[in-house]
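A protein record pairs a chain with a discrete description of its three-dimensional fold. The shape at a given residue is found from the number at the same position. Here is what such a record looks like in full:
>
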Amino acid sequence: MPYDALREDHWADAARIADYLAHAPPDARVVLDVGPGDGWPALPIAGGRPELLIVGVDPSPRRARTCRANACRLA
């Protein structure tokens, strides 16, 4: 779902991502997202810190495919 600034849950999520990024060590190189599902928060973090390698691990092949498809769609 595209970002909609009029939806409280969307701007709350955007604030969480900004908080994650603000607290990430400046020399970080890899982020591990356990259970990324559809790609949250891995994909927004990747958008905010493109120099990071984002690794998602999900036990569900279906959710992993969804995350991968969303990543390709956003690339």
